[in-house]
Design a protein that fits this description.
By secondary structure, this protein is an alpha+beta fold. The chain has one domain. It has nine helices and six strands; from the N terminus they run H-E-E-H-H-E-H-E-E-E-H-H-H-H-H. The protein starts with a helix and ends with a helix.
């Protein structure tokens, strides 16, 4: 029987690092009441490129991982539909990202935290216990019944402030995330997005909050 366990096994075999399920109630997607969160760890050379500030290499590798996640997400959509349910792969091109505000229709991070796969760090990046912030995310929405996990609603960063100290424009606030806060409570997104977009236009980047995350460093040093 095709169910959530079979689907998770399929995704792990495809190279997805973590998979979680959550219930959703989103007005923009009224036909879907479940979300599938996909987390893929970044390889060591990708993190090394950030440490070395080799952004050209990093972006090439990162976009390759995103393309792989897109292909997997689309395959999951087709797989679920072939089993008589409906599904919608929430790929980047379908998620209508506003690059000026770094916003999307349904944030991957929201689905990932409510699926119990991790939490939001001080940097507003998604953080996992296993890989820190060195991950790429995707999601698939469906009406296929799934056994959901308990959400994570509070930051597990404890007193760590490494990402805050590493931010070159001081955009990270000292407030720790919980699910009752807005993104603006923990990060000055205007300052952050302006700097990131300006750097990206120059062929550079800024992911110091990612590479300096203590859990990212633990993962990096373990592989």
């Amino acid at each position: 029987m095709f169910d959530g366990n079979v689907l998770k096994e399929y995704l792990i075999k495809r190279g997805v690092s973590k998979v979680g399920y959550t219930e959703i109630n989103v007005s923009e997607f009224p036909d879907f009441n479940y979300g599938i969160s996909l987390v893929m760890k970044l390889p060591k050379d990708c993190i090394q490129a950030l440490i070395d500030e080799d952004y050209q290499y990093y972006w090439t590798r990162f976009h390759g991982i995103i393309a792989e996640l897109r292909e997997i997400s689309m395959d999951v959509e087709r797989l679920i539909k072939s089993n008589s349910y409906d599904a919608f792969a929430l790929t980047l091109d379908r998620n209508e990202i506003d690059m000026d505000k770094l916003l999307s229709r349904l944030p991957y991070k929201t689905l990932a935290t409510s699926s119990g796969l991790g939490w939001i760090g001080r940097s507003a990046l998604f953080v996992t216990e296993e890989y820190g912030s060195a991950v790429a995310l995707s999601s698939v929405l469906t009406d296929m019944p799934l056994e959901v996990s308990s959400p994570i609603t509070d930051s597990l960063c404890d007193e760590c402030e490494e990402c805050q100290k590493a931010c070159p424009v001081g955009a990270i606030n000292p407030t720790k995330w919980n699910s009752r806060l807005t993104r603006e409570d923990i990060i000055d997104i205007k300052t952050c997005s302006e700097y990131v977009i300006d750097q990206y236009k120059k062929g550079l980047g800024c992911s110091k909050c990612l590479s300096n995350c203590k859990l990212t460093q633990d993962y990096f040093n373990s592989i």
